[in-house]
Structure formats: structure tokens, C-alpha cells
Amino acid sequence: MMKQMVTLLAVLVLIGNSLAQAAERVTLIIPLPQITSVFAFATSIPIELGFFKEEGLEVEASPSPGAVAGIQMVVGEKVTAALSNPGGPLIAVQKGSPIKFYYAAQRGDIFGIGLLEGSGINALSDLKGKSIGVMSFASGGTIYARGLLAEAGLSENDYSLVEIGLGARAASAIQSNQVQALSLFEEAYAQLQQGGIRLSKIVRDPRAAQYISGCIVVRNEDLDRRPDMYIGLARAMAKGQIFQLANPEASVRIHWKVYPNTAPRAGVTDDEVRKHVEVNRTSDRFLSPTALGTNRYGDVPREDMVKLQRYLVATGVVPKEIDVSAYYTNDLIDRINSFDSDKIAALAKSYTGK
Questions:
Q1: N or C terminus of the chain: which is more exposed, having fewer CB within 10 Å?
Q2: Burial of residue 89 (number of CB atoms within 10 Å: 0-12, 13-18, 19+)
């Protein structure tokens, strides 16, 4: 009997070791200098609730100065994948980099040039000779600003772009008049306005209606070789999107639990959670399965991708139009969406923490 028990324990240990070894390690780059709770769907939620684990993945998410930096790490084979706006991968592909994206978590135009209340600047043409704050020169807001200002008739010699970061650093740059306008994104604008920075308007580029962000960018060879791993990565994020939309308060608390360095220094309070939920809700429409009218998570209809590329060519981001299948594929979307979304929504609504 004892011999049988020893044998059984040995088998169980071998099974446990096998399962542990089966977990594929994924390094994922987030295009922000700090992983904020707006990206909980792609990081803390699937980590805490085991969505990555269910897919056989062990995911480590890391911040970066911006989307371009993440793309460079993918191209250089330093990381498994990176979240990005579309400009980065399109530029890289036209320069010969063998990468593409296969899932877009945030679909819609998150960018825009913010004009400051009381600045006397009422139109983009008024920005001639002015300085415009961007998160970093490697951010999507930088590319967006150049394209939109060119459409308004301004050359790159007519204005200056200044790296101002986010949060308190950005607010200081505004208050000291270091910059007279901004080219940031929804979350950043909501945070600044909570802190008392008022915008008279946010000017968006009508050509960017099909804009996408949160694109999972990978190397072509890896996607061909390990499709199941990448399907699992995206599926876990899709579940995270559902959870974040259904229970935004729990999403913020989960994020601060998984990444305590991102929590408020003064402590986690109901008021702090409320303020962060308010900021994150600005991204709800981008995370929705109806964002591009498909009622699925992550896909980009070919005609929308064609329009997006046309916009990026018109704004000088990429030099020419090529077959959009060089940049992206929708081939994995059906498998990514093959899960019970109602079950995840019910989990989110009933979630009270652990």
C-alpha cells in the first residue's frame, strides 16, 4: 500500500511539474511609462482572475516610453508582443520589419489636440509659433499631431513639440506656459481636467474615425509558429475588456492590488477609486465589441483598415498604400472570440474581491 502511495505521489508531482512547464512565458509591452488602470483589461485583470493562466500563459507586462519603443522591442526579438497604435507597425512594415498585429483592443480615435481654456487659441491655425505638449516623441500623440497640423496648413517648422510626460509633470508644463496646447489621449485629458486643467476643446482629425489602438503587435514568424499562444493572449484580454466594462470599480481595485506601485500614495480610498473610474470610463466606447459595428472583440474590417491606411498616408505617417494584409490579419478573431462572454460579464457583476 505504501509503495502504491509513493508511486501515486510521484505521478502527481510529475503531472504538476508538467503543467508548470506547459505555461508559456509572455513578455508584453504597454505603451505608457506607467501601467495605469485603463490597461487593467490587458494586465492586472487577466492576471488576478486567472484568464492568462486558463490559456496556459504566464504574462509579464512592462511599461515603455510609447508605442514606437514597444515596436522596436518586438522587431528586436526582446519581447513577445507589444500593444501599439497602428502608426508604429505600419511604418515598421513599410521599412521591411516582419511584424503585424492580429487584435485591436481599443477601436476608435483616442487622440486629439487639446486647446487650453483661456489661452486665446481657438483653432489649430492659432498654434503657429506655439509649443504643443506630447507624452513622448515615441508616442502616438506625436504622430497624430503632425498629421492633423499639416492638414490645418502648418508645417513642422511652424510649431514645436515638447515632451511633457503625463500627470503632474504635464500639468506643471501647462501651468508654467511651457506649452500652449496638448496632443495627448482620452485618459490623459480626463486626468488633467480632474486636476483643474481646463480645455476649451479637443480637435480631432475626421480622417481618423477608423483609428485603432491597443493593437497586439508580434513577429510574423512567431504568429505562424505559435498561433495558439497568441490566440490565448488576445482571448484573455477580451475577457478583461468585458470585466472592465461591467465592473469598472473592481477593475481599478484589482489593478492597484496587482500593481501596488500605481496606487495613490495617500492610500486606496473610495474617492480615489471613483476618480480613476471616471477617467477609465472615457475608454469604454473603444473597448466595446460594437466599437466598429462588428459585435466582436478585436477585429478590424478590411474596409476600415484600408481607410485607416489612407489616412496615415495622407498625413505622411507612411509613404504609400500597400495591401493591408501586410500589416494585420483577422484570421484568428473567430477563435479568439470563442468563449462565453455572458459568463465573464456575470463574473464581473458578482465580483466582490478575494
A1: N
A2: buried
